[in-house]
């Protein structure tokens, strides 16, 4: 069965099928079936056991979103990256997900090709093509010619419409500023680049979607930990929050990965009529050891078990409601957050 989606890029709109197998074809139709269940995750080491795919398949989600570190590539050799993607793709239970569920995604750093890398990575153009191969993006897609891997995907009929916006926090990102081995804030640095900023504003301005799920490889809201995060670039982080306030999209929700743990963060953005959440799900194959980490925006506990995220949308609820869960192996649930828009 083909699952259809409108993919919007800087250069125009492509109406294409989310490929569930290699024979899926391009079409000029858009699905009018609303999404009710969306699963997402990050940090999958192709060499390690992958015990969560059967749990994810069992959810029968309408969509799976990769949020980066989809493999651990860490190479400027495209044959090496391709072989590692192929190993991930050949996992027999992941293949079941590919057959049953539309899959979209974006990279973080290890699948991009270099740990903590940004625009200084010399093989970014080639790596983008290898990643798009992994996602079965057609050769005719505008994504193949676009600088950067950001994309927008719209699902469902008017009144029950979800727009998924996937941000590329690597291709245009300035190098991290360091003091010794520690990351320090760089107010002059940028993450998205001007072309992507303009594209993002166009995606949010006047959007008729009822829910906007914005995916970022790294966390957007947390500010205190020493790992990669939007707060390493505080001017860019504030610009992003200001853009949300300016465009005021319905039902914006952030999802992120990278951290080898899971948590839920929340802030109040002046001008936005609802709380803004950042749902971090990281660790499909490995997580950090239990530890204490400050996050003044955290809601609930930090999870250091293998995990994936699940968003369930209640289209009948007023106000519109999404229930977000951090789930794990053997149908475990570690966190639950009800979000009202």
Keyword list:
17 strands, 6 helices, nine-stranded mixed beta sheet, Purple Acid Phosphatase, chain A, domain 2, alpha/beta, six-stranded mixed beta sheet, single chain, 341 residues
What's the name of the CATH homologous superfamily?
Alkaline phosphatase D (PhoD)
Helix content: 10-25%
SSE run: EEEHEHHEHEEEEHEHEEEEEEE
Number of domains: 1
- Strand arrangement within the widest β-sheet reads 2-1-6-7-10-11-13-12-14
From the helix content, strand content and strand pairing, which structural class follows?
Answer: alpha/beta
**In one word, what is the shape?**
globular
Number of helices: 6
CATH architecture: 4-Layer Sandwich
Mean pLDDT: 92
- Which consecutive residue ranges, at least 5 long each, have pLDDT under 50? 1-30
Structure description:
This protein is α/β, with parallel strands linked by helices. It has a single domain (3-340), classed as Alkaline phosphatase D (PhoD) (Purple Acid Phosphatase, chain A, domain 2, 4-Layer Sandwich). It has 6 helices and 17 strands. It has helices at residues 53-58, 78-89, 92-100, 124-134, 194-204, 234-247; strands at residues 3-9, 12-18, 37-41, 63-66, 103-105, 151-155, 162-166, 177-179, 182-184, 211-216, 252-256, 262-267, 276-280, 298-303, 308-314, 321-327, 333-340. It has a 9-stranded mixed β-sheet with strand order 2-1-6-7-10-11-13-12-14, covered by helices on one side. A hairpin with an 8-residue loop joins strand 12 and strand 13 (276-280). Helix 2 (78-89) packs parallel to helix 4.
